[in-house]
Write a structure and sequence with these properties.
The protein is built from eleven helices and ten strands. With 299 residues, the chain is an alpha/beta fold. It folds into two domains: 88 residues, Nitrogenase molybdenum iron protein domain (Rossmann fold); 144 residues, Nitrogenase molybdenum iron protein domain (Rossmann fold). The longest helix is centred in the N-terminal third of the chain and has 28 residues.
């Protein structure tokens, strides 16, 4: 058999296997009941965390390539992510609900053809986190538990709002990415999205609130011109020692004329979940608030 013939045969077998899996799942979908899903696949890490927070963890049978939390997900099968979902692997796990990103239109079309329900998640602001929590709880049979978690988040956010009410709101550069120990490739929150909303909820004024984007690539010239009162960095991929954090803060000394630098108002926050719009969002807002208003106390 020639190489071309062998490749064609392999493609035929793969296509036939995928078609068989689709047909089987379409039959399952046709007789699906109104019962909550028992086999959930989540391709969205933030929503994976929500599922476990509301008690739906035992229903999750697979997650995306980027899921790390909670620890229970590390033993689950991986089925790709935003740009590379493994549809054959997904179908082989016989899910009855898949959590997808709104931009995964090709995947959603395949799921529709297979009659597999999906939960269409679209990135939004801070208020959308608890709204999504409640919608996901209703969809998975955990309405009461999801509402309890959502109310807990809302109560903590309200407490932060009360503590910072009436305090000056420092003009803050919220950085979520840059090169280690250097002021290159700086990415900061623009005036839209949950990072912007968290900063505002914490009692700050976003330096780039006037830019209607979720992120801004901020040059040092732009930072000098805007002159932030506070520079707040969030590093969700790094867990830094005190010495490492001090070196990252020291990198900003190159901009000593910036008020935040000259007044020693540069803070680096590290830890998992800082940039994930999931159930830990209230804790992140609390940490931001303490960095912005260290003497506010429990008002």
């Amino acid at each position: 058999m020639s190489a071309d013939s062998a490749a064609c045969s392999t493609r035929h077998r793969t296509s036939r296997g995928l078609t068989t899996a689709l047909a089987a799942l379409m039959m399952l979908g046709a007789v699906a009941s109104a019962q909550p899903p028992r086999r959930i696949i989540s391709l969205v890490p933030a929503l994976t965390q929500m599922l476990f927070a509301m008690g739906a963890g035992p229903q999750v049978v697979a997650v995306s390539s980027y899921d790390e939390d909670p620890p229970e997900v590390r033993a689950l099968p991986r089925v790709g992510a935003l740009l590379d979902p493994d549809i054959e692997r997904i179908l082989s796990l016989r899910p009855d609900l898949i959590i997808t990103y709104g931009s995964q239109t090709d995947l959603q079309a395949q799921l529709q053809r297979a009659a597999i329900p999906f939960f269409d998640y679209r990135h939004g602001g801070l208020s959308g986190i608890t709204q999504t929590m409640r919608e996901l709880g209703e969809r998975t049979g955990h309405t009461t538990e999801a509402d309890r978690v959502a109310r807990g988040i809302e109560a903590r956010l309200a407490a932060v709002s009360k503590r910072v009410a009436g305090l000056p709101r420092p003009r803050t550069l919220l950085v979520f990415g840059r090169e280690r120990r250097a002021l290159r490739n700086i990415y900061a929150s623009g005036g839209r999205g949950f990072l912007h909303d968290m900063l505002e909820a914490a009692g700050g004024t976003n330096l780039f609130a006037d830019i209607d984007r979720e992120s801004v690539q901020a040059t040092t010239e732009l930072i000098l011109a805007r002159a932030p009162d506070v520079i707040l960095e969030v590093r969700s991929a790094d867990v830094l020692t005190d010495e490492e954090a001090a070196r990252e803060v020291a990198a900003w000394n190159a901009l000593i004329s910036v008020p935040a630098v000259g007044r020693h108002r540069v803070v680096v926050l590290t830890g998992k979940g800082l940039t994930v719009p999931g159930p830990d969002v209230a804790e992140v807002v609390e940490r931001m608030s303490r960095a912005l208003h260290p003497r506010a106390g429990d008002r």
